Please model this.
Amino acid sequence: MSISKKSAINISKVLSEALPYIQKFSGKTIVIKYGGSAMRDSYLRKSFARDVVLMKTVGINPVIVHGGGPQIGKELDRLKLDFKFKNGIRVTTPEMVKVIQKVLDLQINPEIKKLINSWGGQGKSFAGKKMGLINAIKSKNKSLGEVGQITKINKSKLLKALTSHQIPIISPIGWGPKKTPLNINADEVACFVAGTIKAEKIILLTDVLGIKNESGKKISQISFKDSKKLLKNKTIVKGGMVPKLTAAIDALNQGVNYAHIVDGRVPHAVLLEILTQKGVGTLINR
Model:
């Protein structure tokens, strides 16, 4: 089947534009927080998995940290367990954390691995009590309940997976001193992981265009210094964007070079953000 001359030219332009970015990031690690619509929509799920495998194939090392808010919410509703959020973080009771852990570790994580493997990738699950990477203690904010604060990431396990040409898929459940599960915001986990392994980039997928200014227009690029100022403006940065921007700033503080807050509703959003000049979200540059 032949393609038109116009289509051929468009394809060649896209590939040519991607080349310098592939060269720049080949051998580098990019941590992706995967969540929102990109996890719910069937087409977006498949295209995300294919894009991640493509990244690995051209020499970029993707690490996935997944969320699962909608799926968790649905299961809590089914069990008639009421829940609420505080500054974008789910307040978690002991009964709820068991449900959250099962949804993340036994449902979502294996589904992502299966999709990645279906495109010829080699997914590596880091989920559950035995395989979980995250050591944590209970958050100092007692009003959040069974929410964890990360103390350590098992860096050697993660690096071993990367050097074995695997694609790590990390569940955001922390494990306490007595191996009890603790719920941790996936943005926080992704950025802690990125800082620990000194990733080149952290990409946070969300269901908004990116960070917006006071007039509601998307900010395509912002400096590290200005992003910290913006975080203090509670009329602009609020709700679920608070933990995202906080985590991004923490990752940059730990040595990550770039943080992106990207609209995951856009097909191939991750590839567009990495391999094109304009991207589709907000870039915070250290």
In short: The chain has one domain: 26-285. The chain has a mean pLDDT of 89. The longest strand covers residues 29-34. The two ends are 46 Å apart (CA to CA).
